[in-house]
Q: What sequence folds into this?
């Protein structure tokens, strides 16, 4: 068990992380802070630079056995923190507003317990993953040449869940987080003077038609196997000037499906709409961003989590799972030979 001193020290450590948030791909100091804390806990090895700034601590037993990974995230969000808390973010425009600082503190608490009770068989890997918020981190870790030596048999993670009673857990088998993909559509024509718009090729009408047409491809509703949602997140038309008829436009859309296998069809439909609009003298190009694979809980891994929760007398049910939101942890469980599952831990129904 963690002592009162452990809890106080980990609370201070989390608050220190909270004050100095770093966004996806920039977690240099956060990773260094994690490494410093781990060194005092005696893992058999610490692996750094995983998929960018990722860190893994490994405890290995003398006897063969399963390899088990527990994962937390390093990155914060590019959002201004509006708070009066003494430990609020000191970095303008950045904040740990998704709870990743808390996840790191939980994993560091586990590291303290493992340092006192090392595994008797197999090995335990504590993974502090970079770049979860933009969907690139887990994929980068898995693609790292250092990862095959770490690939686990079992992978587990948790995420804090505001609105769920404190200590209550949401857990289910199968999909728990949707797949999502950011699609940027760029339409190019020809600018003209605003007094002579007929001499140019404006994308204005194409944008006006595309925005509702894209939304109609996926209107959300209850989550089911064919669930689709398209959300327009940004649009830009020409320059902010009264004297110029626009010659370029952008539409940003987030595509969302319950499972990975449905994403390709939705993406193809969205791109086909844009290509059809481009036949009227425009050209169109596409780029993809923030690609999150669906997170799917393996039945055996989920059963292990349920057994652990029951042993701790922690209440659990399916809650509101699956969620519309996305999480890149599912990529670990999608690896051959790895069974993974994530649970969602209630942190209270009202703000602190």
A:
């Amino acid at each position: 068990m963690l002592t009162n001193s452990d809890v106080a020290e980990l609370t201070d450590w989390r608050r220190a992380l909270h004050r100095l948030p770093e966004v996806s791909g920039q977690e240099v100091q956060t990773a260094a802070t994690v490494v410093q804390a781990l060194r005092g806990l005696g893992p058999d090895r610490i692996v750094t630079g995983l998929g960018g700034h990722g860190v893994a601590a490994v405890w290995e037993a003398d006897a063969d056995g399963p390899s088990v990974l527990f994962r937390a995230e390093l990155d914060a969000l590019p959002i201004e923190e509006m708070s009066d808390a003494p430990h609020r973010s000191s970095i303008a425009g950045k904040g740990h507003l998704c709870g990743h600082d808390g996840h790191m503190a939980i994993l560091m608490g586990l590291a303290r317990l493992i340092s006192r009770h090392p595994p008797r068989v197999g090995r335990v890997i504590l993974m502090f993953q970079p770049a979860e918020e933009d969907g690139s981190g887990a994929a980068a870790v898995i693609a790292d040449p250092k990862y095959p030596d770490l690939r686990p048999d079992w992978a587990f993670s948790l995420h804090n869940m505001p609105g769920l009673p404190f200590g209550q857990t949401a857990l289910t088998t199968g999909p728990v987080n949707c797949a999502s993909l950011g699609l940027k559509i760029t339409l190019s024509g020809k600018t003209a003077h605003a007094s002579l718009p007929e001499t140019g090729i404006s994308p204005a009408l194409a944008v006006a038609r595309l925005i509702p047409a894209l939304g109609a491809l996926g209107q959300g509703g209850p989550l089911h196997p064919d669930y689709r949602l398209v959300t327009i997140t940004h649009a830009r038309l020409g320059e902010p000037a009264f004297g110029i008829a626009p010659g370029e436009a952008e539409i940003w859309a987030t595509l969302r499906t319950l499972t990975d296998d449905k994403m390709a069809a939705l993406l193809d439909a969205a791109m086909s709409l844009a290509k059809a609009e481009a036949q009227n003298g425009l050209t169109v190009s596409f780029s993809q961003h923030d690609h999150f694979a669906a997170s799917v809980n393996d039945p055996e891994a989920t059963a292990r989590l349920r057994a652990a929760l029951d042993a701790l007398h922690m209440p659990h049910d399916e809650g509101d799972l699956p969620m519309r939101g996305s999480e890149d942890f599912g990529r670990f469980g999608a690896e051959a030979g790895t069974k993974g599952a994530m649970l969602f831990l209630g942190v209270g129904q009202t703000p602190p």
